[in-house]
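Page 42, continued from yesterday. The earlier attempt failed because a stray header line got pasted into the input along with the sequence. Redoing it now with the clean sequence only.
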Amino acid sequence: MGLVDRVALVTGGSRGIGKAIAWELVGQGCQVGVNYIDFDQNKEQAEELVAEIIQSGGKAFAVKGNVADPSEADAMVHQVVNHFGRIDILVNNAGITRDTLLVRMKEEDWDAVIDVNLKGTFNCCKSAVKFMIKQKYGKIVNIASVVGLMGNVGQVNYGASKAGIIGLTKSLARELAGRNINVNAVAPGFIETKMTESLPESARENLVRQIPLQRLGKPEDVAHLVGFLVSDKAAYITGQTIPVDGGMVMN
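This time it went through. Structure tokens are written below.
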């Protein structure tokens, strides 16, 4: 229970990796704001997750907000602070894909992915950091991707957004190091989510062949690392990008 009385905001926290991260933080005693955007049953899933956390003895609440909108991102952070009294941890997990080959990619496909994945991370960091600087404490973890490290066919927009997150992480870590704020990135590989579950068996087998550990990861594999990075055990780690990918990228 190393995060007792700490307050976290997890963007895109209603399902998948975000949901696993929320549970990981609650398990360490953290109070969690679960962000969602009212689309594709996200509201219902966020409220259901919050109810389960409260029933288990934890503290959480659902907070609506589109991270791509600066005013909504700022309002979301303020809601967390108003609800819990502070914000100690920010996990920028919200993200989308609009996959297609470059020659077929529409400008709106590029803009949408950059706006949510990269600009959304910027928006939330900018708002949360103001509070963290005042309290001289903070932990930020940005969810990047191995695609931002190695690239992938049909994902130039996604790859650019995630590579941008890695650059943002390094620069912000340098800016905030003197304020006792750690900023790191986690780069998941292929993880068992709703998206990968819907893939044809042949496509899943092809993915697994690219992974040295010969299996897809679980959301909890990512969440465990996030839980470590926001704990005091990682106090001397900042500006790093750590893959959770079964060995796909080996630096």
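Notes: The chain has a mean pLDDT of 95.
Reminder to self: strip header lines before submitting.
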